[in-house]
Write a structure and sequence with these properties.
Elements: H1 2-26, H2 39-50, E1 64-72, E2 78-85, E3 98-105, H3 109-118, H4 124-134, H5 143-149, H6 157-160, H7 164-168, E4 172-177, H8 193-207, E5 212-221, H9 223-232, E6 239-245, H10 251-256, H11 265-276, H12 282-286, H13 292-300, H14 306-311, H15 322-328, H16 333-338, E7 350-355, H17 361-370, E8 378-383, H18 403-415, E9 428-431, E10 437-440, E11 449-456, E12 467-472, E13 480-484, H19 496-501, H20 510-513, H21 517-520, E14 524-527, E15 535-549, E16 555-563, E17 569-578, E18 590-591, E19 597-599, E20 618-631, E21 636-642, H22 653-659, E22 664-668, E23 675-680
Parallel strand pairs: 3-4, 3-5, 5-6, 6-7, 7-8, 8-9, 12-14
Antiparallel strand pairs: 1-2, 2-4, 9-10, 11-12, 11-23, 13-22, 14-21, 15-20, 15-22, 15-23, 16-17, 16-21, 18-19
């Protein structure tokens, strides 16, 4: 009897320990925060990456490349890969099994090879980096040019494809054309399940090659970053670490249809991939790697997914072609490809980089919270960058180490087992807008508390806009109706959202990007009193509007701005919503104790669409991108409201026809108030 009781107690103790360990893996824990530059550890990672290599070859940057290596998928389709391996002092490929880094890209392995060559010519790359770093337009009307050019010194180029320094330190790298792109056979799958399965099979293939020790990592930017999240959610056994740069776990919410709107980027992107997929790999042609099956596949599927764009041009929802309706329905292959990538399933150590002005900023910022790993096994850096300049300026004093340096440190830890302290970094390192580089334990910051601030018709006297309203904490002003036209939203062509949608290209115009006052001429503004002490805004935001319309459809765009004492208005976050697609997905949204939305997601289906009734008050909730910003003493917070936002977002063609570009109205009624729910470190009057 005593023996059975003792055995029972032992089992209970083991179960309790197991439960405790499980909870620790999914619950935020206090972690030591290192400085943004990593301190002494950061210097050691830099020395490891830039120092003497294990396999230096006969000359700087020498590696062995096998071009167009065929990898046969389970359905018989052949993908083509370039395999980069280190060489010994005689230029012979190293035969020692090494950890292997995999990158699957639709931008062609030829483009990755060109980038690799440009960065590998002895002394040329260093000279180029020194040249662009010497160009400093800070303090001029073209200061943003510097932000773009310094992407070269931030190490992102070496995370795009292959990093010869990484290879010479004892890694194999593989760059693979995704199915239907580059020199790979098949039809482009665009994140669908077959493409993810291909990635899993490539990882399995790589882990079993004689030059691999079975430990696989993944790298890459943008599409390749998204692919890493999708594959990591499958947790293939050989995958030991990922390093996604500007990835996304929610392509619909980030860029395909944020708030149900359509941005200019998506159709242009599809057209771009459709064009480049039809060009053969020049290196493969020179080497005689001709592939008749590749040619036949391209002739058969020359313009993938562009037919959906054509279908969307129909003037009425009722006339949408059935194939498009099927693709838009929940559960469809294409819909699932662009929906939630389920970061909560990821068990692989993940180091992510995102930018506050990137098109994928929302999920880049919030995926850290959803990945169920302790801080030692997941990291996040959020820079003040656009899609075209990831890592800009990294490596400079007081800033995080370069991306290529962090990438190798991450792989050294999780693929080679080197105790280099990278697990102590961060865990969240970010550019706090209005401040500078900071480190924290979690995003949103634990000190954030959601507070309502009400849109008021009282004039603030601080803005030159269609209507200069106020923002306050009580919402007791007299009722008012404010009108805004979609036509006045043409000022969005000079805005930060324009720069975001152009991937940062138009950001060179500081008067549009870093000062929103031209844009504000076409909208309604609501500005708070100045803060008396530094006030942090950290987390996703929701703008709750009481609205009315002159037609059965409408569109809203909002921004959250930091207004300086000299009047400069800087956008720190934005959001948009197609009014008829306002139905909230409660399963994916979050509310505070008062029932107010704090993180907002939408159903975005035709079945849940709610056409508007002209003249009838309608409340809507507009999701605003996550943010981490600080209002310095004397600064104000401002909410801008617009009825259009081209090219960042526009109504889908049939809904645009239905809207008639009619006026839209914001109702300021104390009994049904309009307000913004802000995650603040302290109250704002």
């Amino acid at each position: 009897m005593i023996g059975r009781a003792r055995s029972h107690l032992i089992r209970l103790a083991i179960a309790a320990v197991a439960i405790t360990m499980t909870s620790l893996s999914v619950t935020p824990t206090a972690a030591a925060e290192t400085p943004p530059d990593g301190g002494e550890l950061g210097q050691s990672w830099l020395a490891a990456h830039d120092g003497p290599a294990k396999y230096p070859g006969r000359y700087p940057g020498e590696v062995h490349i096998d071009f167009d290596v065929p990898i046969t998928m389970s359905d018989g389709t052949v993908l083509k890969a370039n395999v980069y391996r280190p060489v010994d002092a005689n230029g012979v490929p190293v035969t020692d099994p090494l950890p292997t880094i995999v990158n699957l890209t639709p931008y062609t392995k030829f483009a990755s090879w060109l980038a690799d060559v440009a960065l590998s010519v002895p002394w040329l790359s260093d000279a180029l980096i020194q040249l662009v770093n010497s160009v400093d337009l800070t303090g001029t009307p073209l200061s943003s040019v510097t932000d773009l050019t310094r992407v070269l010194s931030g190490g992102a180029a070496r995370t795009f494809g292959a990093d010869r320094r990484l290879i010479q330190h004892g890694y194999t790298q593989i760059v693979v054309d995704t199915r239907g792109t580059g020199y790979s056979q098949g039809a482009w799958q665009f994140f669908q399940s077959r493409e993810t399965q291909d990635s899993v099979e490539v990882i399995d293939w790589a882990s079993k090659q004689p030059w691999s020790d079975g430990n696989i990592g993944m790298n890459g930017i943008s599409y390749s970053g998204i692919n890493q999240y999708m594959v990591a959610a499958q947790n293939p056994p050989a995958l030991k670490a990922i390093f996604p740069v500007e990835g996304s776990t929610d392509k619909i919410g980030d860029v395909a249809a944020p708030g149900g709107g359509l941005g200019l980027f998506a159709p242009l992107y599809i057209a771009f991939i459709d064009v480049i997929q039809n060009f053969p790999d020049p290196v493969g042609v020179v080497l005689g790697h001709l592939d008749a099956k590749w040619l036949m596949d391209r002739v058969t599927t020359p313009f993938e997914f562009f037919d959906y764009i054509i279908m969307a041009l129909t003037p009425s929802v009722d006339l949408l072609p059935e194939p498009l309706k099927q693709a838009l329905r929940p559960g469809s292959e294409l819909r699932e490809a662009f929906s939630d990538s389920h970061p909560e399933r990821i068990k692989v150590p993940t180091f992510a980089y995102g930018g506050w002005q990137d098109i994928f900023a929302p999920s880049s910022a919030m995926s850290f919270d959803r990945i169920p790993l302790p801080p030692e096994r997941k990291k996040l850096i959020m820079g003040d960058t656009y899609h075209a300049n990831p890592g800009s300026g990294l490596g400079n004093p007081g800033k995080p180490p370069r991306l290529d340096v962090l990438q190798m440190a991450w792989y050294d830890k999780w693929l080679k087992g080197i105790d280099n302290g990278i697990d102590q970094y961060g865990p969240v390192v970010l550019w706090q807008q209005g401040g500078g580089w900071t480190a924290t334990s979690w995003l949103p910051r634990p000190t954030s508390e959601y507070r309502r601030m009400y849109l008021s018709p009282a004039r603030s006297g601080t803005a030159n806009s269609l209507y200069d309203g106020s923002l306050n904490g009580d919402g007791t002003d007299a009722p008012a109706q404010l009108t805004v036209s979609p036509l006045t939203g043409i000022t969005a062509l000079c805005s930060r959202d324009m720069a975001v949608e152009s991937l940062g290209i138009t950001s060179v115009i500081d008067g549009c990007t870093k000062d929103d006052r031209i844009h504000e001429l076409g909208g309604l503004t609501f500005t708070s009193a100045p803060v008396s002490e530094a006030t942090v805004i950290s987390g996703p935001i929701n703008v709750h509007l009481n609205t009315a319309y002159d037609s059965s459809e409408g569109y809203w765009s909002v921004t959250v701005n930091d207004v300086a004492p000299d009047g400069r208005s800087t956008v720190v976050a934005s959001g948009q919503l197609t009014a008829s697609l306002r139905a909230v997905d409660e399963d994916k949204s979050k509310r505070n104790a008062a029932g107010d939305l704090t993180e907002t997601a939408y159903l975005l289906t035709l079945d849940s669409r709610q056409p508007l009734v002209p003249g009838q008050p309608t409340t809507i909730d507009i999701a605003v991108n996550p943010v981490d910003a600080v209002l310095q003493p004397g600064h104000r917070v401002r909410i801008d409201v617009y009825a259009s936002n081209f090219p960042r977002g526009v109504l889908l063609p049939p809904l645009l026809v239905e809207s008639r570009l009619a006026n839209q109205h914001v109702l300021l009624d104390p009994s049904e108030p309009s307000y913004v729910n802000l995650p603040l470190s302290r109250s704002i009057a």
